[in-house]
Design brief:
Blueprint: E1 2-5, H1 23-29, E2 34-37, H2 39-42, E3 52-54, H3 59-63, E4 69-71, H4 78-95, E5 99-102, E6 113-116, E7 119-122, H5 126-133, E8 137-140
Parallel strand pairs: 1-2, 1-5, 5-8
Antiparallel strand pairs: 3-4, 6-7
Helix pairs in contact: 4-5
Length: 148
C-alpha cells in the first residue's frame, strides 16, 4: 500500500482549487494499491484556500510547537495542519502503507523543499515529518527520497 498526495493523482484539492496531476506518479501507481490523501483538507481547510507557509524550520518544528503555519493573509493555521497530518497518519497506519509519494514544496507534504516567505528552502512538511518519525519511506513526485 502506498500513500500519495491526492493532488498528484488529479484530485482538485490544491490551495487554488486545482491539482498537480503527474503522469510519472500515475504510471508508477498503475496496478498498485494506493490511497490519495490531502492533509490540508483532512485538517478542515477549504478548497480553494489561501497559500500557507511554515514560518521557520520545517514540519518537525511545527510538531514540537517551535514554529507555526501562517496563511498568506496572516491567519495562524497551525492547528489545522497538525490535525490534518495526524488524520492522514492514522489512515496511513490503518492501511498498512509503508511508502508515500508526496508533493514537494508543500507546507503539509514537502519532501525536500518548502516555502518560507517567498523563498524556497530545504525542509519538510508537517505530514512528511510525522511519516518519517514512523519510519515510512517518503519520496517526492520526481522519485527523490527525503534528503533533508
Amino acid at each position: 500500500m502506498i500513500v500519495v498526495s491526492a493532488c498528484l493523482v488529479g484530485v482538485n484539492c490544491r490551495y487554488d482549487g486545482g491539482n498537480q496531476s503527474n503522469a510519472r506518479v500515475r504510471k508508477l501507481l498503475k496496478g498498485k494499491n494506493f490511497i490519495p490523501l490531502c492533509p490540508e483538507q483532512l485538517g478542515g481547510l477549504p478548497t480553494p484556500r489561501s497559500t500557507s507557509q511554515i514560518t521557520r524550520g520545517s514540519g518537525s518544528e511545527i510538531i514540537s510547537r517551535r514554529s507555526r503555519v501562517i496563511s498568506f493573509e496572516g491567519k495562524d493555521v497551525t492547528r489545522q495542519f497538525l490535525k490534518g497530518a495526524r488524520e492522514a497518519l492514522k489512515i496511513t497506519k490503518l492501511s498498512g502503507a509503508t511508502r508515500a509519494i508526496l508533493k514537494d514544496r508543500s507546507p503539509a507534504c514537502g519532501v525536500n523543499h518548502i516555502y518560507q516567505g517567498k523563498k524556497l528552502v530545504k525542509g519538510i512538511g508537517v505530514f512528511t515529518a510525522f511519516l518519517l518519525r514512523e519510519g515510512i519511506e517518503v519520496r517526492d513526485e520526481s522519485g527523490i527520497g527525503c534528503q533533508v
